[in-house]
Amino acid sequence: MAPFKAFRVHTIDGKPVCRFEKLAMDDLDPGAVVIKIAYSAITYKDAMAARGVGKNVRTDRPCVTGVDLSGEVVSSQDPRFAAGDLVAVTNYKLGNDHDGGYAEYARVPGDWIVSLPAGLSLYEAMGLGTSGLTAALALDRVEAAGLTPAAGAVGITGATGGVGSLAVNMFAQRGYKVIAISGKREQEGFLRSIGAQSIIGREEFLADRASLAKPLFAGALDNVGGVYLDRLAAKMQPCGKLAVAGMAVGAEVTTTVLPLILRSIDILGINVSRQLQMKERRRLWERMATDLKPKNLAEISRAIPFEDLDKTMDKFFDASTVGRVVVEVGSKAPVRG
Ligand SMILES: NC(=O)c1ccc[n+]([C@@H]2O[C@H](COP(=O)([O-])OP(=O)(O)OC[C@H]3O[C@@H](n4cnc5c(N)ncnc54)[C@H](OP(=O)(O)O)[C@@H]3O)[C@@H](O)[C@H]2O)c1
User: Fold this and answer.
1) Element (H, E) at 204
2) Are residues 121 and 134 in the same domain?
3) Measured from the CB, is residue 248 less than 6 Å from ligand 1?
4) How many angstroms separate the alpha carbon of residue 72 from the centre of ligand 1?
5) Is 152 contained in some domain?
């Protein structure tokens, strides 16, 4: 096979150096299934890996980053997959300790692969990817804990982000009244177009510092962490269901236990990495292809050429991205499905 294009992070003198380069198949980490990648995406985690924030990418040797990929199986030593299968892979070690989605080919273990469900194209699969899975798991878990649209509104922080915007759309189409919490007032039109019934700006949301604030939310999804989680907890209705997925402002939280105890709040940790069993992962992908498929996926996701990958990463740190960024790695057109 001819050399193919890849975007790798090298750690040189403790700092990340990203570059496009040509690789041979044997340069990739081994795996039973070879996939020709059509699309990948950019998540906050990919931006962190590219810019050396946190320690989420291996440093002892270069790594093709990209925690998400979709594509077509080229060859397989795993009997569960065959050439021509359309597949998606998200998380596990992909893109941080195993060569990931930013290359024209990947070799991955069969245990990490989900067959593309009917009803999703390879492009749509990356319009969803890790962000969609996170939103879907949050919705699935709060409903399993008893949340229904009749209970009251759902608050979503980081609402214009990848996870946030997909969650706004998914909850809205399930019949929930969604209140989007966002630092981007200028995106009110976008947030309303994907299902938010109202928007609370960042300053307004943080202004009320009471431990037991006016109860606004029967359910909530926090993508931001820090003080946002504290403010969300304080605004939950009695018996509210609060899903915690992100830490865009950091991992530390200072809060009080008062609303959690006095209002009997359920806190649900959301993790779509290895903890999410394959059986559950497949079930959620099926839901994302059917009842949870975001009606506004085409507006929420946008494609960038592979070449624009590096310069797009920085937009994740100044929080200027909106929706989900899909990377055209090997194909500009949705292939099949
Ligand atoms: N638990 C899991 O399994 C899992 C999976 C995927 C992602 N995550 C985490 O979930 C979070 C969101 O991921 P994402 O891919 O949606 O990221 P993203 O696209 O970068 O969106 C994050 C959003 O959070 C808000 N935000 C960012 N920086 C902020 C700041 N300093 N202060 C206040 N708000 C800020 C912004 O929304 P507004 O401008 O609208 O406020 C931003 O668009 C990240 O922390 C990510 O690591 C967790």
Assistant:
1) helix 202-207
2) no
3) yes
4) 30
5) yes
Structure tokens at 148: 């229904």
Q: Residue 156's domain is classified under what CATH number?
A: 3.40.50.720
**What is the per-residue pLDDT across 172-211, written as a single tens digit (0 to 9) for each?**
999 999 999 999 999 999 999 999 999 999 999 999 999 9
Q: Do 140 and 265 sit in the same domain of this protein? A: yes
Asked whether residue 46 is assigned to any structural domain, the reply reads yes
Question: Percent of the chain at pLDDT above 70?
Answer: 98
Mean pLDDT of 6-16: 94
Tokens describing residue 91: 């998380």
Does 263 share its domain with 141? yes
Give the amino acid at 23.
L
- Provide the residue range defining the domain that includes 226: 130-269
Torsions phi, psi of 289, nearest 5?
A: -90, -10
What is the C-alpha separation between 240 and 220, in angstroms, rounded? 8
> pTM (2 decimals)?
0.96
Mutate to test the pocket of ligand 1, among 96, 185, 223 (most ligand atoms within 8 A of CB): 223
242 vs 260: CA distance, rounded Å: 10
Number of domains in the chain: 2
- Do 51 and 73 reside in the same domain of the chain? yes
102-135 pLDDT, tens digit per residue, is 999 999 999 999 999 999 999 999 999 999 999 9
Substitution candidate for ligand 1 out of 40, 42, 44 with most atoms within 8 A of CB: 44
Nearest protein Cα to ligand 1, atom 27: 319
Clarify whether residues 87 and 137 are in a common domain. no
